[in-house]
Design goal:
Distance between the termini: 58 Å
Number of strands: 0
Number of helices: 10
Oligomer: single chain
Largest sheet: none
Structural class: mainly alpha
Order of helices and strands: HHHHHHHHHH
Shape: globular
Number of domains: 1
Length: about 260
């Protein structure tokens, strides 16, 4: 990335306004997502795993819509620092359309999450069809929960997790290595950063399959975990500690289900 500085005194107030606009817009979008999930909650909570009846097409579409709402509600707070850094870099490259490029960056970021949401909804449907989410079948449900906890905990300790986490934690390094001009470049950059974020967070997001995909408390806890992992100085240590706890809980549940 080659710098073409335009950081003049006159440009600084505009850059400050852009940061405020970006933060406010993403915060508003996040809040709307959480409100929509909360309002849709009573109807959607009655769908997955509550009984053994097959899903109707409407229920399957509702589950997919839920994941499409849940992903931006959980991940937009995580990506906000990178979007702001991208807007600042765009202005320093002489771009007067930094906000438009930021919009393209966010669009590319969320677009990469769409296939994950589709796969998660499909997995939820398959698990429901196999009655593995039904509370009346506690042993299969416990085994599934144990397997997902062990998988998520193992990934929290894996080198790939920490390589992706480091990339997410250093927006400047990402911009230096991945910079592309204009809004099309911003779209590609957002998609590439989104791909890294999917790799970093897929395991903890998958836990929503067993904690309850409409459980707003678990959603908030996992969102906070992703935020702290990526923003706090001790993020790597937290990821490892959470992984150890997940492995311990998974092993305990596995032993209980097999006893």
């Amino acid at each position: 990335m080659t710098a073409r500085a335009v950081s003049t005194p006159a440009a600084r107030p505009a850059a400050g306004r852009e940061r405020v606009i970006i933060a406010a817009t993403l915060a508003a979008a996040t809040l709307l997502g959480w409100i929509a999930l909360q309002r849709a909650g009573p109807g959607m909570r009655a769908m997955p795993g509550m009984d053994a009846s097959p899903w109707t097409a409407r229920e399957a579409a509702g589950a997919l819509a839920m994941w499409m709402l849940m992903i931006p509600a959980m991940m937009l707070p995580v990506v906000t620092p990178v979007v702001q850094a991208h807007a600042t870099a765009s202005r320093h490259h002489g771009g007067e359309d930094a906000l438009a490029r930021s919009g393209a960056f966010v669009a590319g970021y969320l677009a990469v999450w769409v296939p994950y949401g589709v796969l998660a909804a499909a997995a939820q449907w398959a698990l429901h069809a196999a009655a593995l989410l039904a509370p009346t079948r506690w042993r299969p449900a416990a085994l599934l929960t144990a397997v997902l906890l062990l998988a998520a905990g193992g990934f929290q300790l894996a080198p790939l997790k920490h390589a992706c986490l480091e990339r997410c934690r250093t927006p400047l390094g990402f911009l230096l290595t991945e910079w592309r001009p204009r809004w099309r470049g911003a779209l590609v950059m957002g998609a590439r950063h989104g791909g890294t974020c999917v790799l970093c967070c897929w395991a903890i997001m998958a836990l929503m399959l067993v904690t309850g995909a409409m459980n707003l408390v678990w959603m908030a806890a996992l969102t906070l975990l992703a935020l702290v992992e990526q923003l706090a100085p001790f993020g790597h240590r937290l990821a490892r500690a959470v992984g150890i706890v997940m492995l311990g809980c998974g092993a305990w549940m596995l032993l209980g289900a097999l006893a």
